[in-house]
Amino acid sequence: MQDLLTAVRESRAWACYDCGKCTAACPIARIGGSLSPRRHVLKANSGQQKEILQNGTLFSCLTCRMCDQRCPATVAYTDLIQKLRALAFRGGVEPECPHGGALQSLMRMMAKGETHQDRLRWLSPDLKSDPEKGEVFYWTGCNVYYDAFFSDFPVATLKGTKAAVGLMNKLGVVPVVSADERCCGHDLLWNGDRKHFELLAQHNVKLLEASGAQTLVTSCAECLRTWKIDYEPFFSSKPPRMLHISEFLAEHLQELKNLLETRSRRREEADSPSTPDGNIDLFTSTAAPSPQVRTGSALESKTPTSVTFQDPCRLGRHLGIYDPPRQVLSVLPGIKLAEMRNRAGAALCCAGGTWSNCDRFAKQIQVERLREARATGASVLVTACPKCQIHFRCAMKDPRLRGETEIEMKDVSEVVAEAIAQAFEKQVRESCE
Amino acid sequence: MTATESLPPAAQVAQAQRRESISWNLRLVVFACNWCSYAGADTAGVSRIQYEPYFRIIRVMCSGRIQPDFVLRAFEKGADGVLMSGCHFGDCHYVFGNRRAVEQFEKIKRVLRLLGIEEQRLRLEWISAAEGARFARIINEFTDQIRRLGPSLLAGKRNPYAGSPHSG
Ligand code: SF4
Ligand code: SF4
Ligand code: FES
Fold this sequence. Notes:
By secondary structure, chain A is α/β, with parallel strands linked by helices.
């Protein structure tokens, strides 16, 4: 009981006044799932631990944070659910994991950590990095496992990882890329498995501290949330700065521009602010995306490629990072950002985040989101989290929906790296003419 | 080259020490399809063939049923080796189940390599219902192979079966 009490206290569940906005906002409830965050909050408040753990919807929550954002009493439902799941797990209640729990097995094996992982084969010699020490630590996450496990989708999240390291090099940074990295434990934490999560957290924090890095950069929104929020208690001293790769690139925006400028000579500054289509509602306006989208210059032979952006729930609603990826995309020549109907704070999440709730509701949300992406007319769906890529690519495999949901997917870093490469190519072409 | 040989020397030493510290009770997990391999094991028994006893057999309806999580869970729980087995090509009672098994096998192997678990700890074999002798031979071979590799690094530190023939 004491634990439930702590959960209620820390998540501010006690402040709930039963308005029901959370359930109204919940994407699962909206499409007919029986999940009711409001009911969980109320039951937690009245100490009905057993009912909550047995009612079967504890693991249906996507932890997307749509509800937290709308709660007038600032109840952190996702914090509550994280703690409730830990209680459930301790009591032997586990989620029904997709892929039979194979991914959880991988994570637990990493948590045991007796073996010597072979996770850096993708690190080609043209990418400069340091295996142990440096100013900046580039956290790769488990992309290497995902690409091996979901090779039949096909999933290619490592392309984003490689592009990210390449870009950091171009910006003069030689990051630490460590072979001793282990899964951040994000999914285990949200499944309720605190024990293995803590083992991973302790190892990873020690690894980072030993590297002497002042900054951690990662391409994975889930890793970033875990590092920034859930790892905090594990640091012995002040944690370093932690940035998503899009934030890192946004911080180096001027250098990035220079890189694109010098590469494409005499490019005219044809800035045409495009009005974003669709309406920004109350919840997105807190972080309105910058409408500054530079269209291609006069020298650009091709019409600009239209891309759209998926806000990962971990990056957006959990960490409040909406603008940096958009800023980065907006400086790329030949790239035009077309926003989806629901964007930023209102963006639908990829619905599969923690490997615990892949069901028909998740599928429906994914399909709906892909339809939104297609409706923008964009040819590429850019994302800032490898998990979004995996889950959307999975949803695209439905043969009955072929032609309705398919869209190319790329990581932010991939798009930036390609733009730089293209600018360079063009320069070479021009100098030959 | 085994996974261990490709490691930096310091890691090799650490792993060797770790292996020494494990008091070992060799454990293999064998997944066998209901229609061929399981019946093959039965044939071996009925024919009273003597062979290595350090495996647990788990019957599945078809080798195509052996999902990556089955194998990964076995390794997670400390199995020293896993054998996936099914009907010969063309004999699968679900037509292409064993082709699927090959795909899964390749996928699991890729993941094991990333984890640093020796690929030789996983094996895929086709054994028909009549091949009792073959079943016994494969088990013997595989047991020997695992014995040479030593205990899995994920094998538990405490040994509930102290005094097994492999603990010395
Ligand atoms: S976090 Fe998302 S899925 Fe979970 S209850 Fe809130 S809105 Fe629903
Ligand atoms: S939105 Fe907040 S106050 Fe309203 S029912 Fe949900 S948790 Fe309670
Ligand atoms: S039934 Fe034996 S492999 Fe399919």
